[in-house]
Amino acid sequence: MKLRAVRKTSMAAVVFVAIAASSLAAQGGHPSFSGTWILDTARSDKSSFTPQSATYHVTQLGDSLILDRETAGTGKAHMVYELTGKPRTNTLPLIGLSTAATSTVSWHGDSLVVHTLSHPQDADLVQTDIWVLANGGRELRLKRDAVYAGSSMGSPTLVFIKQ
Fold first, then answer.
1. What is the mean pLDDT of residues 13-27?
2. Which residues contact 152 (CB under 8 A, 6 or more apart)?
3. Angle at 92 between CA 87 and CA 95, to 5 degrees
């Protein structure tokens, strides 16, 4: 009788592990950045483009990541990124203008890398954001590197806290 119960328990564990593994495989094993994130300015690096405040609302569904962001100074923006590596163009408030920005997303392990190219005021703005979850998923660390018209704007790390 006990052996039968152990077999059932073992079989249930095997089924659970198989379902969990296939679910991760279907997602590519990548973390989800979904949630509402508030910029922690005290823990973020200062740079010419670090906002005084920012809120990111992120929804990650299937092959898309939707970012609704509100930042002091630039206002609201709605972006959709393709998690498949396919380029996606969004309109963003950049340097005081609404500007078309084309982003390509890739995964490097558990890090999400967003490479964006735009042309505000007829100059190239190349921005690379690396998203990493920390502290058990309670923090989003966004390492940003930006070059505008051939000049570096800095490489700050922005720290967001999940709400």
1. 36
2. 145, 146
3. 125
Q: Amino acid letter at 55? A: T
Phi–psi pair at 57, nearest 5 degrees: -110, 115
Q: What's residue 73's pLDDT?
A: 82
Over the range 20-32, which residues count as b (16 or more CB within 10 Å of their CB) and which as e?
Answer: eeeeeeeeeeebe
Helices (H) and strands (E) in the chain, counts: 1, 11
In eight-state DSSP terms, residue 27 is H
Instruction: Report pTM.
Output: 0.80
CB under 8 Å to 72, separation ≥6 — which residues?
Answer: 51, 52, 53, 54
DSSP secondary structure string, 38-77? EE-TTTSPP-TT--S-EEEEEEEETTEEEEEEEETTTEEE
Tell me the per-residue pLDDT of 96-154, one tens digit each, with 9 for 90 and over: 778 999 999 999 999 999 999 999 889 999 999 999 999 999 999 999 999 999 999 88
Q: In the block, which residue shows the tokens 């495989």?
A: 25
